[in-house]
Amino acid sequence: MACVSAGATEIRLAIYVQPRSARSRVAGLRGDRLKVQVAAPPVDGAANEAVIAVIAEWLDVPRRMVRIARGESGREKLLAIAAARPDEMVRRVAEKLASMPA
User: Fold this and answer.
1) Is 99 exposed, middle or buried (0-12, 13-18, 19+ CB in 10 A)?
2) Spatial CA neighbour of 26 closest among 71, 1, 60, 64
3) Cα separation of 20 and 68, whole Å?
4) For the chain, how many structural domains are there in total?
5) Looking at residue 83, which CATH number applies to its domain?
6) Which tens digit of pLDDT belongs to each residue from 8-49?
7) What is the rounded CA–CA span in Å between residue 34 and residue 48?
8) Which domain does 19 fall in, by range?
9) 57 CB contacts (<8 Å, ≥6 apart)?
10) 37 and 21 in contact (C-beta within 8 Å)?
11) How far apart are CA 26 and CA 33, in angstroms?
């Protein structure tokens, strides 16, 4: 799966952000990136904070484990998610994507 990769202590998740959406959620894939819709506007870091909250809830991890590694000011971002077992976290992402409606 192109949107996620595992490192030694974290996973990297490539996402595409759609700010000012009707609701905040993971909306599936957009090309080789995970599409994340957030209700927050892209002003003063509000959309970035919303992205972190959505991904933390989606993966059932504390918000402090999720950070933006690249792309703070753009729609395409690379998130780093701390994980004691990165391979397990990659599997969780794959399962969640497989269970989403097409």
Assistant:
1) exposed
2) 60
3) 19
4) 1
5) 3.30.1200.10
6) 999 999 999 999 999 999 999 999 999 999 999 999 999 999
7) 15
8) 4-98
9) none
10) yes
11) 11
Query: Tokens for 36?
Result: 């994340």
Place of tokens 């952000």: 17
H, E, C per residue of the chain? CCCEEECCCEEEEEEEEECCCCCCEEEEEECCEEEEECCCCCCCCHHHHHHHHHHHHHHCCCHHHEEEEECCCCCEEEEEEECCCHHHHHHHHHHHHHCCCC
Per-residue pLDDT reduced to its tens digit, 44-97: 999 999 999 999 999 999 999 999 999 999 999 999 999 999 999 999 999 998
- CA dist 22 and 102 (Å) reads 19
Residues 82, 65, 18, CA angle at the centre, nearest 5°? Answer: 105
